[in-house]
Design brief:
alpha/beta, D-Maltodextrin-Binding Protein, domain 2, 2 domains, 66% helix
């Protein structure tokens, strides 16, 4: 135990005193803030400040579409109307788009006895936001026109077509109805899931790199004269894990200090309200520790079978597959966080930390799901640690011999 604590202390102090620790402690949250800020601002500006032209054979329809587009003040659009429009007008509009005088134009044709045919032409093939706004404005105008043709007054038609905003409420596990915001809940869970995946991978790789460096420098031959291989591995896992918890604690304290200021008051109220429950506060470090132990144990076993850090890098994408798989299920989890597939994915130990926080962003899972997920992770950690320790005992002293699968199976039998 004494040697284990000495190794853990050495790993902890060596990394905490390093320049990389100080830089990542400051830069990682700063980069997160920049990424979230850029995403928020880009989302607000999507489809805004467009210069559009509405061309139709019916002047009333074209003007009504323009009014619908201009009613959205956040879009800040400039809309021209050409009506009635002929074939030569379309050619001229194509030239204006090509010359970037306008962003695009909506061309409407009305064949006799048939429904109107609309085409949006622009330089961008992925401007789905503008396309959606044009489609909504066009359909609203057509419905209004059809109602008026059937004798409905314009004021009555406007009342029939008035939009109604839907407020979202959530029934919590106590059976109470509380206010909710799907967007902020999702982003809270998403950011926590990214933070978990990033930190567990980073510190897991730190354990692996430390093993490779000591293996190539032959310092293990000296260390093994005073400590058992299991103590060395356990000390590394505890020391590096403590570094991760220290860094997360610094981020949490800094976040609490920032959110308590008047500058951050808008984030804690209104539609952008972001609140964290005590359950999330307890589960986040718990899942970090479990995820870190699982991935670092896996990386430690891999590192013991590698000769160089470059060889280790080749295995990294394979170890990151569960993380990619977790985020690939994000659409499924958002739509139904309590589906059979969502629950099954949250029980799969390599994906559990990420999937659980993505699910919590939608609705809080049941206590038995947390208990089963944590239990399966602990069992998996024990299994991976058992294999990694056996590979570690033999692999750290193996030089110049490629660790093939049959060779690693022999290592498990030897130890």
């Amino acid at each position: 135990m004494h040697n284990l604590l000495l190794v853990a202390k050495r790993e902890y102090l060596e990394q905490v005193r390093g320049r990389a620790f100080r830089l990542t402690t400051v830069l990682v949250p700063a980069l997160f803030a920049i990424i979230i800020g850029v995403g928020f601002l880009s989302g607000r500006s999507t489809g805004a400040n467009k210069h559009l032209v509405v061309a139709a054979p019916d002047t009333v329809l074209a003007n009504d579409i323009r009014d619908q587009l201009l009613a959205d003040k956040s879009a800040k659009a400039t809309v021209e109307v050409i009506a009635p429009a002929g074939g030569e007008d379309r050619d001229a509009l194509v030239k204006r788009v090509s010359a970037k005088e306008i962003d695009g134009f909506l061309w409407i044709e009305q064949p006799a006895g048939k429904d109107p045919v609309a085409t949006y032409e622009s330089q961008s093939s992925g401007d789905f936001v503008t396309e959606a706004k044009l489609s909504s404005a066009l359909n609203h105008s057509l419905i209004q026109g059809r109602l008026e043709q059937r004798g409905v007054k314009q004021s009555e038609a406007d009342a029939l077509l008035a939009r109604i905003e839907i407020k979202t409420l959530q029934v919590n596990k106590e059976g109470k109805v509380v206010k909710s915001n799907a967007q902020t809940s999702f982003w809270k869970g998403y950011v926590m899931a990214i933070l978990l995946s990033m930190t567990t991978m980073i510190y897991g790789m730190n354990v692996a790199r430390s093993i490779i460096q000591e293996k190539t420098s032959r310092i293990f031959e000296v260390m093994l004269s005073t400590a058992k291989p299991s103590d060395l591995l356990a000390g590394k896992l505890i020391g590096v894990g403590a570094v991760g918890l220290t860094q997360i604690a610094i981020w949490v304290v800094a976040a609490v200090a920032l959110l308590s200021t008047a500058f951050a008051a808008p984030l804690m109220s209104g539609d952008l309200a972001i609140h964290f429950s005590w359950v999330e506060g307890v589960l986040f470090p718990l899942y970090f520790v479990l995820g870190y132990l699982l991935y670092s144990s896996l990386f430690a076993g891999l590192a013991a079978t590698c000769e160089t850090e470059q060889e280790l890098q080749m295995y990294t994408p394979l170890a990151a597959v569960p993380i990619w798989l977790s985020f690939s299920l994000i659409v499924l989890i958002i739509n139904d966080s309590n589906s059979v597939w969502s629950i099954a994915a949250s029980m799969f130990p390599p994906c559990a930390p990420i999937i659980m926080f993505l699910r919590m962003g939608s609705s809080m899972p049941q206590p038995w799901e947390f208990a089963l997920s944590i239990s399966l992770m602990i069992v998996s950690i024990i299994g991976v640690l058992w294999v990694s320790t056996k590979l570690y005992r033999v692999g750290i002293l193996m030089y110049g011999k490629r660790a093939t699968l049959p060779e690693m199976l022999r290592w498990l039998r030897y130890s």
